[in-house]
Write a structure and sequence with these properties.
The chain has a two-stranded antiparallel sheet with strand order 1-2. Helices cover 71% and strands 13% of the residues. The protein has 3 helices and 2 strands. The chain has a domain of 136 residues: Helix Hairpins. 11% of the residues are buried. A hairpin with a 2-residue loop joins strand 1 and strand 2. The longest helix has 85 residues. The model has no long low-confidence stretch (mean pLDDT 87). The chain is α+β, with helices and mostly antiparallel strands.
């Protein structure tokens, strides 16, 4: 514990600090609750996207061996643009997916195998899910980091700063009270001595 001055000015400073801590703590606790809720929702969203991605992969797996044929699927479908914007959750900037745009070229039905159309659709759906999941995971990482920081601050205020300020106030009050008692006692002794001198004179 840091050394404090046992003065009236320090008493006022500690009182002000305690008021500040107690005023700021509920805001931090509210932010912590909001972040916890958002993190849980994003975790569920990421899990759902992973599950959907897995289902898509299972649906594709029976004919995935066809991909070994020399067909350039990137020619028929590729990601042109991923439009995202910054959202704000409890003061934390998180990426939000607006849309995924694909550059498509219609395959020639005579020059390409029949399964290419289905493969292009499956790839497009998988890319979209993967991009959506990656953006959700980025948001989850940012919110989780902010939750850790907020949790540390709440603990700092609850377990260190507020009890420390209360203990400092208690020590200063005891010291000032003792000083006042000593001053009163000295005043009485001085008054008694003055009274004795007057009587003796």
């Amino acid at each position: 514990m840091a050394r404090i001055k046992l003065t009236k000015n320090e008493l006022k400073a500690q009182r002000d600090a305690l008021r500040r801590f107690e005023r700021y703590l509920p805001t931090l606790q509210l932010k912590k609750q909001q972040l916890q809720l958002e993190v849980r929702q994003l975790e569920a969203q990421v899990e759902e996207l992973r599950a959907r991605e897995g289902e898509r992969m299972k649906a594709v797996s029976p004919w995935v061996k066809l991909f070994s044929e020399p067909v350039e699927l990137e020619r028929f479908c590729r990601v042109r643009e991923v439009a995202r914007e910054e959202g704000n959750i409890a003061g934390v900037p998180v990426p939000v997916l607006r849309e995924v745009t694909f550059a498509r070229e219609a395959p020639d039905p005579f020059a390409t195998p029949a399964w290419v159309d289905d493969a292009v659709e499956a790839l497009e759906a998988l890319w979209r899910l993967r991009i959506e999941r990656e953006i959700a995971e980025t948001g989850l990482e940012r919110l989780s980091a902010e939750l850790r920081t907020t949790n540390q601050r709440v603990n700092l205020f609850e377990k260190v700063k507020i009890p420390e300020a209360k203990e400092n106030l208690r020590r200063i009050r005891i010291f000032l009270g003792d000083q006042m008692t000593a001053a009163v006692a000295r005043a009485k002794i001085a008054k008694g001595k003055t009274a004795q001198r007057v009587e003796a004179a």
